Amino acid sequence: MILSIASGKGGTGKTTVAVNMALSLKDVQLLDCDVEEPNVHLLLHPNINEEKSVYVSTPQVDEELCDHCGKCGEFCQYNAILVSSEKVLVFLELCHSCGGCVIVCPGKAISEEQHRIGTLKCGSTGDLEVVYGELDVGEPMAVPVIREVKRRIESDKTVILDSPPGTSCPVIETVKGSDFCVLVTEPTPFGLHDLRITVQVLEDMEIPFGVVVNRAGLGDKKVYEYCEEKNIPILLEIPYRRKIAELYSKGIPFSSEMPEWKEKFQTLFDEARKLAGK
Amino acid sequence: MKIGVSSSGNNMEALVDPRFGRCPYFVLVDSESMQFEAVPNLAAASGSGAGIQAAQTITSKQVQVLITGNVGPNAFRALSAAEITVITGASGKVREVIEKYKKGLLSETREPTVRGHFGMGAGRGHGRRRGQQ
């Protein structure tokens, strides 16, 4: 069972839900796919036993062999290559490492170079396996690092994926292939606005999903009305409580101090599994 | 000399579009004969790298001087590599800016005038951490 936790809006509590759920279950892999700003490890302090660099392939043009025919530039859908009559310019930050330019070059003037973009870290906290990625500062392409994190999925285990916020490429890469997606929102106009966008994405991707309302009691009823109208199950509400916030501010997953919540997270997982048909 | 102008329309009376990468047309003018050709800018709808794609269009049309409103860092690097003279800050009709250039009233730009994604408009970027507390 692969379960992803996403939200649309940032700061709604994805990591809170992912970490607390992971701590409430057995035989779990928790993968932090927010490689631009990973934070699962800040709450779990895993012992890291493996660390490796993540590389992407980028084109290197041999000007001696290049006759400036321009086929590579025409092929590139991301406009990462410009061919003038004298020079070829490669814009690494736009390259998606598809390797197409190498294939289409008739003069075999393009080769691939390895370019480091981040780090993969694997470790554990007790029985809980933790994997996360860190994108290097200044690197714009998060997806290859996320892919590397997801390569560690062992599908016979319970796999929880903590997604980045938003609905752009890194989120799509994270939730792709999930059996179920938990959308964490807060009952505010901002929470609802971004929840709607994320719902559209998941409907398009045909991934079953349900909602967790965090900071329940705050804001208004519009998130509930929307979910009822759309027939989206609300799987759990986490109240807007000072104690939960205080524990979070100290970096403590609240279910470890409030053990009654472990059961609620187990129920959340069971519901998700049922809805996923697993 | 062939001069390219980023334009909001496909003729000499159209207004200069201040965006280089995402203008709808380039009007390419022969400064001696004042004959022109309008080329649609295919980069206008591009997801990313519009400035580079637009620079590729300008380069393959053998333009020597480009007149526009602003250029971003990637477009500027691309245009410089192709040894195209870049003039920014232009406004008014295409015909007027060509005349100004011919009178020597416009000067070359040595660096990008805006950051990347400038011409995308509000809400077109990769919104991500908006609203995060």
Beta-strand content bin of chain A? 25-35%
Rounded average pLDDT of chain B: 89
Level-2 CATH architecture of the largest domain in chain A: 3-Layer(aba) Sandwich
Strand order of the largest sheet of chain A: 3-6-7-2-8-1-9-10-11
In total, the number of strands of chain B is 5
When the domains of chain B are counted, the total is 1
Based on secondary structure, the structural category of chain B is alpha/beta
For CATH, the homologous superfamily of chain B is named as Dinitrogenase iron-molybdenum cofactor biosynthesis domain
Number of domains of chain A: 2
- The succession of helices and strands of chain B, N to C, reads EEEHEHEH
**H/E element order of chain A:** EHEHEHEEHEEHEHEHEHEHHH
Beta content of chain B: 15-25%
Oligomer: heterodimer
Overall pLDDT confidence of chain A: 96
Gap from first CA to last CA of chain A: 7 Å
Number of helices of chain B: 3
> Total helix count of chain A?
11
Q: What's the arrangement of strands in the largest beta sheet of chain B?
A: 3-2-1-4-5
* Shape, per Cα inertia axes of chain A: elongated
